[in-house]
Give the backbone structure.
Amino acid sequence: MNFLAHLWLTDRAGLPLAGAILGDVLRGPMPPAMPEPLARSVMLHRRVDAHTDRHPRVVAAREGFAPGARRYAGIVLDLLYDHVLAGDWAAHAAQPLEQFAHRAGREVAEGRRWFEHAGDTAPDPARFSALLQSYATASGMDFAIQRTAGRLRRPQGLLDAAAGWQQRIEGLRADVAPLLADLARL
């Protein structure tokens, strides 16, 4: 699961949204001064990541990638699951995606201190909101794939694995609701 799914799960758990994103940047034990709800949010992110990697639907989807591309399949699937979630947002959330994305941008930015503690910077609220909303579009997914690949040492591997991503969407659409239901029980 990528940003949007982590935020959706964290929101459903009633935890601070900043932890849904901090889980990607904060390594090791929680800082002693971190508020307990935020620490629980980071821990939820970590549990979701671990459970998602072993989930039978994700394992089956990963097997649909060519052997050389499987190394990057998990990253590609995380992005594609967010695309499906964004496209079917109204089936999963009462608050419209645009409103949720704006709220998430603000709340994640409120965790600025903890991003800095992890040696990173908090996302800009407006840009982060726009990124979350862009997951609903094909051009937004192309951008997310390019952006993610650009952070890797060997970006071409991810780009090759993601090629033709649109053909995978229908197969993944059936996975999202049961996968989210399983993850919401963590």
